[in-house]
Structure formats: C-alpha cells, structure tokens
Fold these 3 entries.
Entry 1:
Amino acid sequence: VQLQASGGGLVQAGGSLRLSCAASGTITSIKSMEWYRQAPGKQRDLVATISTGGGTTYADSVKGRFTISRDSAKNTGYLQMNSLQPEDTAVYYCKANIRSHFILADSWGQGTQVTVSS
C-alpha cells in the first residue's frame, strides 16, 4: 500500500490550496485518515483527522479555515485549505490507517510542500 500526497505549492496569504492523498495497492478498506504538517525546525503536528464514519477533528490553529474530507470510492482524502497564512507554511503529510486483507497498518505519504507568502 502506498500513499501519494499532492497539491502543495506557493500561494499568497489569503489564498487557498487543496491537498490530495491517494492510496494505491491492495486495499480492503481505509479506516481513518489524517493530515500532519511540519515546519522547518519544528515537530510534526496533527492538523486534521477524519474517521471511518466521517467524523472530523481539527487543530485549533486551522479550525474554520481547513476542511478534511474523503472519497472512499477513490481511496483518496483531501484537505481544503482556505485563508492561508504564512504560519501555515510547512510540509504536509497524510497518514491513513488501511486494511489490506487481514493486515491493518498505518501508511504515510511522502509530504507536499505548502508555502504561503505574505
């Protein structure tokens, strides 16, 4: 199983980006999906989660600006980011808890750079 994150880029403050996280391989089902971010010199922080049932949680710093979603038919998760600010600059990583036959394990995407200019 592999996760491919994409959609990052350079955007001005106040702009928007939509990140995608596509899972491929032998996938029986995808449980939760999460987005993390890591700014230079800082730890990797949890940004948003979406559960099997579609329940979502967000870090306080992104509430009201970011929206996590998923398309189970496409084995893909999304992070819609609006009203971006320079402090949102980071490498964004997706993580998914995936069942492949009888094995349930976490997989990480490779990260996608988001840079917000002031």
Entry 2:
Amino acid sequence: QVQLVESGGGLVQDGGSLRLSCLASRRTFSGRPMGWFRQAPGKEREFIAGINWDSTVEDYADSVKGRFTIARDNAENRVYLQMNSLKPEDTAVYYCNTNPPQRDIWGRGTQVSVSS
C-alpha cells in the first residue's frame, strides 16, 4: 500500500514559487507530526520543515526559514509546503514523511528545479 504521494514539483526561475502537496494514508498521517525533507544531487536527505498534529508548532531549517511555509489538512490527510523566493540551491527531490521520518515509507518524492 502506497502511504505517501508527493506532487506539485516543477521547473521555476530564481525567485519563483511552488506549492507542494503530500497525500498520506490515514494510518501514516493520523495523530502524527509531519515533515518535509529534500535530497539534492550528491547530498544526504535533509529536514526542511515540520508541523505538529494540531498545527500549533512549526519548525524550519535555517536555509528555508522565512521563505517556506508548511501546513496540513487533517480532514484530507494532506500536508503542504508553500515555497516562495526559490533559489537554485533549493533544487532537489522533495519528500514528505512523519517527523521524525519512518524509514520504510518514503514515497517517490517530487522534483523541484530552480533555474538561475
């Protein structure tokens, strides 16, 4: 059973915006903190944003703070990532998962490419 499906990536210019969406299974999503992670070519996967179950606490990596916003819709089992002021260094495959992540449920991710 597919538990995490990311979408919304694409190619944008420096300074552009994208909104990523992640559909999770209820089993994965319900009651759990969720997060967004990314992996750039040749680099380790890294945490970039997290949100608790009732959306009262958000956490961001310094590299995206002030530019990215995480949100969730508990009725729809979805978590979102609004990305503004994108930079070429944001180019990566973006993944959602619980936070902290569960090793065996990573999805395919969605590619974000930012051109200079």
Entry 3:
Amino acid sequence: VQLVESGGGLVQPGGSLRLSCAASGFTFSRYAMSWYRQAPGKERELVASIGSGGGSTNYADSVKGRFTISRDNAKSTVYLQMNSLKAEDTAVYYCNSAPWGKNYWGKGTLVTVSS
C-alpha cells in the first residue's frame, strides 16, 4: 500500500490550497479515506473522512464550512480543498486508509499559513 500526498505549501491567511493523495496497492473504491494533521507539539488529529462511495463525509468542528473532502475512485485519489485558511491550520497533513483492518499512512505534506 502506498499513499502519496501532494499540494502543500506556504499560503497567506484567508488563502486556499488543495491537497491530493494518490493511493495504490489496494482496491481504492472499497475503502474510506481520511485526512489527518499534526501541528508542532500537538497530537495527530482527524480532519475529515469520506466513505468508499464518496456520499458520506465528516469533518472536525474546527474545519467545518472551510474544508471539503472528495475522492475520484477512477483515479484512486482523495482530495482536501482548504479555504479560508488560518494560522492554526498550519500542520503536516497525512492521508490515511485502513484496508484489511490495518492503518496505512502517507509521509505527509506540510501546510504553512503565514503572512
């Protein structure tokens, strides 16, 4: 299983970024996908998740109304559209899935929100 995140970078407060996670090594369309983040000195936290078919999503309270998770099963890719970014969104963002009951993680992509 491989999960490869991309799309992170430096953005000003109020700006937007779109993260992508390309998955391989398992039948992507059968499994839920999630985005987590870990800020410096803090524990990793769940940001958003999406069901296998894309019809079911949930979000952390801190990102509701600003972030949107989506997936393209034909491309085995999950996305996280992040709008109205705040300094407190600064973190390494990780893609996650759990095929066969085992957790798999990407290496992460750094998002820095700063003026």
